[in-house]
Amino acid sequence: MYQVKGCGYHIAMAWLTVFGIPAMAYVMGVTALLFRMNDRPQNPVLLVGAGLLTAGIYIFHRTSITYVEPMQERHRIALKHRMILRVLAFLLGVLATAIFALHHPMATLLVFGALAGVIAYGRKTITRPLRTVLYLKPIAVGTAITCFAWTLNDFENGIMSVIAFVLFCTADALCCDLEDCTFDSATGCTTMATRLGVHRTWIVAGLLYICAAFLLQATVGWLFLVSFALPIALRSNKREVIDLRPVLVLLLLWVL
In whole angstroms, what is the distance from residue 94 CA to residue 71 CA? Predict the structure, then answer.
């Protein structure tokens, strides 16, 4: 039932996705950029903790789905290896907790907050899963990622910078939903990407990028805006480019 299909490259990318590697790179990139925006030295320990927690939370979320067709390779892998992946997610969460505790005991609350958030996002609790609320899904993802990074930066970034990154991350989450439209619809989740369609989704995301860049009025914002067209120019691997964009922007800032 959970047979993995596809060519070698796509299966390899599916495994990387299941392990939360692209999500880890994205969150670590956003966190590092907020440090850079505030002229603070990078904190490698905190970045590692952020990456481990992101991977653990992503694995937990990915293994919480129910079987429904059509499924992508990452869904099949997650379901086929659910138990061992759940153990891995727990271990990553423990490591992240230990790292945050060394930084500041209160930072460990981020782990429990992230766990509560992903449960509310993907499962029915006192209300329906947040991911099934039409306009809330990309905003929830963008806000959660930015606020997580902002917290690790001790809330030292200005509010305009935070709003700008919420817009960047929301736009990226919206574009990433395009790949999942068929699966989301099969699970009863009608996303903005499904409702808007491909072209209008990219237009809305582009407008969010423009607004964010003008809010920032900084090099990092213009680099994000210039890089917006990168995934559009590619016929495939759009999601991978989106996930790696914050890291690319960070590298360009260092070069410049």
Answer: 30
